[in-house]
Amino acid sequence: MKAPVKHHYVPQFLLRNFADAKEQLVVHRLDQSGSFPAVVLKTGHRNDGHTLYGPSFDGGKDRTTLESMMSGLEAKAALVISELASPAGASELSEEHRHVLRWFAGLQTARSRFTFGYISRQAEQEGGPIGLTREETQTGLLMASTRSHLDAWMASKDPDSHYKDRYSPFGSELMAFRWDLVRFKQPSLVVSDAFAAQSGIRVEQRHKYHPVQKNWAKHGIGVPLNESARVTMALTPTLGVYLHRGTTKKALKAEAFNRDSVYAAREFVAHAPGWESSKPLLSKSMAGNLDLQRMLRVAMAKNF
């Protein structure tokens, strides 16, 4: 059986949560104005985006190793989100819920096409390796970032593994936040290519940043995770996770949740058909945020 070519960096299970019964979405890309209909299968993917290349692989390429490793973590995340979204879902996140979601959030960061594009550009500007093909560059990025994260995830399931072997920089930083579930009575949230949307600067660190930097921080730019104010994760149109620096449970309005998702997006924002007409105020707010994000996106590194 031929290995699939479409490799989703935004998993299909997550997109399905925001699509209609026919797996239809309305997609707003950041590199163009307007929106268009799309199916889940054709959203958030790159052909051969997770393929490893090299003479050691059969036929010079390996399309299955990373995809297989990713599917195991994605399945765990899908199960956790399904449990939380069920009518009898928990009101609080358990340690197991947080464990799986922070590893999944780490995966989304470790395979981010924007992150890969940023690293590639920085390497070029600093006189990095010259003459590498795109396939060689992709393989290096995937092995250094994605494979390392997945290996750590596998090690985390072994209680006898060494701490350094199961360490996830992104996931470990998320443990410093308070995690709160936020539920909405009606479908209110949108999804973007950024699962864990970082925003703002924590109060005790704000004096270190000037006004322009504070504005960029709203878009997840220029501030390390350990100095950020909050992180949001949209799980379904009616369910999200709000990570903040407080010590007591907090809620977050849908408008602010969606703003974070849009500002963290680097490629697209999506929702089910009919969402805009059913939520005109949220739709209007999102449209304004999209306009700003599209304008700022041209100043950021291109996706790989």
TrEMBL record:
Entry-linked InterPro entries = DUF4238
Q: What is this protein called?
A: DUF4238 domain-containing protein
> What species does this protein belong to?
Arthrobacter alpinus
